[in-house]
Structures
1.
Amino acid sequence: MATEKKRPRGLKSSAKANKKAKVEEASTEIPENAQTIVIEKEVEEGDELGEVAALLESAIEKLEENPVEALALLRGTIHESDQILRKWKSEESLPAFFYYNYGVALYELGRLMEDEEFEPYLDAAEERLEDGLKQLKEDDKELYSKAHLALCKVWFAKAASQVSEDDTVSDLAIRALDAADKIVDELPSKVVVELADIVQNHGALYSSLESRNKFITWAKKTLEKILKEEPNNAQALYVLGLCKLQVAHYYLDNLNEEEEEEEEKIKLSEEEEKAYEAIIESKKNLESARKAFLEQDKLMPQVLADLAEVHLNEANLVLGEERQNKVYEQAINAIKEAQKLIDEKKLDYELPEGLIAFLAEYEEEQ
């Protein structure tokens, strides 16, 4: 494929762009099968706190595959929690796990409500989670870690709106990172990977390498520690690949205009070399993640979309048209594999426009 080299400035990580599935307008009522879900989870009749916990558990399970149903379940969790709080007459406070469930439901609902302001949900979630910590028993280490994990998510979400033009890292972001550091060793690996993903996504919001690296370096070290124990942890490999892709983005975004306008190159600049090195490292991790996900039959199109982005960035840095075209073909294969996966599994996922446009251009020239 003969094509002019172009820096893919418009391409950003599809994992970041498509982090949340688009949620259609859903009823505020709990779905008809919600009570069945509660019964299946063996909640005793009349145990309102247990029913709320079961509703939230069901909602969390459905967040990725069925966000519309998850939305209704989260609303149900919050509605029931509010009712319990209003009618609670006992002199004893409600237990810490009640406030934890309430706070998590508020946070997750805010994430899904794309047409509404996130901040009010975050404020309410933070208040409930902190209420729960006040009631927490000293020996309940598991709930302590879970509550602080939830607060980390809330604080990082709030800190995202505080990123300023001068790229100063806010006190809240530092607070969130410190809290993450204190609990990370107490969390299961699956949750640690989720936390590392949140941290690296926050780092990507900054323009300066110093500010960005504060978060991405933490995420990389955390993921590498997991991979020493679990070398085939697909999600850890994937997020580590995204960390390295964020580093590449920094160098690509800061190439000077002369470098971008130069049509034929015989040598990469220092910045391009650094970007290329990060891209190759990212590709290695993403390809390993793809293989691991395939073995588990859990491969999702966003993994392939990110891999395609990496191939495109690599192609725009390699020297020589023949080498470049080979890498472009790898990008095309990843895009087509993602499309096939979406069609076969009938997934509610849209490939980034930049990838779709590139595929269309490629096919026109064949």
Note: The two ends are 8 Å apart (CA to CA).
2.
Amino acid sequence: MKTVFTLLLPATASLLLSSCNTGLVPGLDQQEQELPQYQLSAPEQEWATPYRLGQEWRFRNEQGYERRYQVKGLSDQQLPGLVTGTKRVGYYQQGLGARLERVDSSYVMRADNVQYTARFSMTAAIPKAAQHEPAASAQLDWGGVHLALPAADDFAHLPTGVRLLPTARFGGRTYSNVLEYARMEPQAPGQWQLRRVYYTKENGVVRFEEVSGAVWTRQ
């Protein structure tokens, strides 16, 4: 079983892609092209807006210290799905991904580098029945926590512990439709301990608070 069309993009590129403009998906043979191919819609792909190769997210705390995270890798893949109860590929779904790494002067490569990396991923919906249109899924692993993002823009049905702030002002900037993640899952000892994370569709993480009390605001 193969995963096809893994694409590392040039520095000017972002994840706002569509591999279905021609109706053909690179990397699939003729027989595979005939299988269902579930693609992310243009509005769904907008959740990938903050991830442009080489882009930096800069944060500063109240003491003036700075942290910088840079988008180091992007991917656009056709992910194979198996027919239930078999090992036969029955469809392909589009999957987007991005990797960020901490690149400020305090960065040190460590085996337990969860606090130095972050990963964004998003996959197209797989319809289970004609009358049901499930949403695409998107998530960000930020430090030791997993943030589920409302890829369908359904802000009325957010997970427990997540609330929508119509506007919020951080670091002299006003953001709209800010998602506040206030219920962090327990993290393993030694991991980066977070208390709260604020996220927007257009900007990604705009603020995060550590258990220690440190608050880091996007610049």
Note: The chain has a mean pLDDT of 83.
